[in-house]
Specification:
The structure is a homodimer of 142-residue chains. The first copy, chain A, has 142 residues and is mainly alpha-helical. Helices cover 69% and strands 9% of the residues of chain A. The first copy, chain A, has six helices and three strands. In chain A, strand 2 and strand 3 form a beta hairpin. The longest helix of chain A has 23 residues. Chain A is globular. The two termini of chain A are 26 Å apart. The model of chain A has no long low-confidence stretch (mean pLDDT 94). Chains A and B meet through helix 1, helix 5 and helix 6 of A and helix 1, helix 5 and helix 6 of B. Chain A binds a DNA duplex (30 and 30 nucleotides) through helix 4.
Chain lengths: 142, 142
DNA sequence: GCAGAATAGTTCGTATGCCGAAATGTTAGT
DNA sequence: ACTAACATTTCGGCATACGAACTATTCTGC
């Protein structure tokens, strides 16, 4: 079969298993996966203007603003006006948010460990290799 | 870095690009991606009991029932009671639904073609190979 | 320096998607 | 016949998403 068709065919298969992995690995978390991604993005950057956050997460500004609302209500982040450009809002993690993200990261890695322990060492290697290749090639499409 | 950590790190990266691909490839479709997946699942099987549909799509029965409602309202599928087991509901595609799914499939493959044309032949091969490997390995985890 | 454009964010209405609990109907087991 | 198990639907509730309309701020051109 032609490459393109094969890719079109495999896409939903991959998404299905990736979704399954997510639900296993993020099982029992206090945050949804999307909230986790947002908090992680802010945490990794130290702080993040809202418009950049929306771009990184590939969602509309309005959606990003609403998600930030929820994270603020949960006490994990806070907003400040950028004094250098008062139109802009910068999001920071609170101490509580940073603590959470560290805990979650640890837990997630542990869950991956448990999940992937079912695979022979060789397949783990191939998995990492495929992940790296995907990230590399698909990254160039953006 | 340890395999597990690398996988945990790459997962969101992959999901991000895969999401980007979805939004490009399914751009301008009359159905959401989830609706497309559901319609495709029914189409590929010819017909599908609701409970199987929910299992395949990895969603709760109640969610599946609601999604079927929407597809019924759009005129793409219909429900019938299984006379062999009157508790069970079987979903069928309508002619309109089948026509749509064939059109969408064609359009989607075309969009993949345009998108992936940016990649050198060699990277296309590597991409297919990685997809195959992922599908194979992750499939064993289920 | 000021009018109008551009930028950044928020709020609102609407829709999808998702879940669990409760209710309904159907079948199977004893 | 009674009860348990099964299949589905409906309901309430929440997260996510978008675009449109609105406010506030900054930039640009004249």
């Amino acid at each position: 079969m032609e490459n393109i068709e094969r890719i079109a065919q495999l896409y939903p298969v991959i998404m299905r298993v990736m979704g399954r992995i997510r639900s296993i690995v993020h099982e029992g978390m206090d945050l949804t996966y999307n909230q986790y991604k947002m908090l992680l993005t802010i945490y990794d950057k130290g702080s993040c203007p809202l418009n950049l956050l929306a771009r990184e997460l590939q969602i509309a500004m309005s959606s990003a603003s609403e998600m930030v609302d929820r994270l603020v209500n949960l006490g994990f982040v806070y907003r400040t006006v950028d004094e250098g450009n008062r139109r802009q809002v910068i999001i920071y993690t609170t101490d509580k948010g940073e603590e959470l993200i560290r805990d979650l990261r640890r837990g997630i890695v542990e869950n991956y460990r448990t999940l992937l322990a079912k695979l022979p060492e060789r397949d783990q290697e191939r998995l990492v290799q495929s992940f790296e290749t995907l990230a590399e090639i698909l990254g160039t499409l953006e």
